[in-house]
Amino acid sequence: QVQLVESGGGLVQAGGSLRLSCAASGIIFSSNTMGWYRQPPGKQRELVASIASGGTTIYADSVKGRFTISRDNARRTTYLQMNSVKPEDTAVYYCNARRQFTSSWGQGAQVTVSS
After folding, report:
1. Rg over CA atoms, the chain
2. Residues 32, 43: Cα–Cα separation, whole Å
3. Among 31, 64, 74, 111, which residue's Cβ finds the most Cβ atoms within 10 Å?
């Protein structure tokens, strides 16, 4: 049974930092592309960043230079370091694990950035 558990969300002031974590179980973690998505209020879910099994990363233009995705295969955990956050970063952030034709989601973590 696949489980992705996000943690680290909360309230942060604009310009501050926050780190999200996603602990995975029930998957071959090292073989999965791990991603962070977000869904702002009233909007569709969008990709924030992803990191492939080999370490290749992809970022949305809106977070380039501010957010960093990383993974620790030994801990089966992926991270999203969020720096210089803006009010428009407010959203529910979801962890995703993807491999070939399978995709799994976490329950989501709320991030609220106050101006």
Report:
1. 13
2. 27
3. 111
The Cα–Cα gap between 2 and 76 comes to: 12
Q: Token pair of 86, please?
A: 């803006």
Read off the pLDDT of residues 14-61 as tens digits, 9 standing for 90 and up: 999 999 999 999 989 999 999 999 999 999 999 999 999 999 999 999
For every residue of the chain, which 3-state class applies, written as one string?
CCEEEEECCEEEECCCCEEEEEEEECCCHHHCEEEEEEECCCCCCEEEEEECCCCCEEECCCCCCCEEEEEECCCCEEEEEECCCCHHHCEEEEEEEEECCEEEECCCEEEEEEC
Cα separation of 32 and 29, whole Å?
Answer: 5
